[in-house]
Design goal:
two-stranded antiparallel ribbon; 2 strands; 15% helix; alpha+beta; elongated
């Protein structure tokens, strides 16, 4: 499956998409298929490290 990682604070373009293995499922978990996701201002603020309070 694809995952977006934030490895360090920086420019929004520093987000990386990687292929990762599906997590192991147990009797009390589910795997949800997501077709689309959005990025909003609070996501950008966390990636850039601003405002400082978001850290």
């Amino acid at each position: 499956m694809k995952a977006v990682y934030i490895r360090k604070y920086g420019a929004f373009e520093s987000l990386k998409t990687e292929e990762v293995a599906n997590p192991a499922l147990t009797d009390d978990t589910v795997l949800v298929h997501i077709r689309a996701a959005a990025v909003n201002y609070s996501n950008v603020a966390i990636v850039t490290g601003k405002p400082f309070i978001a850290r």
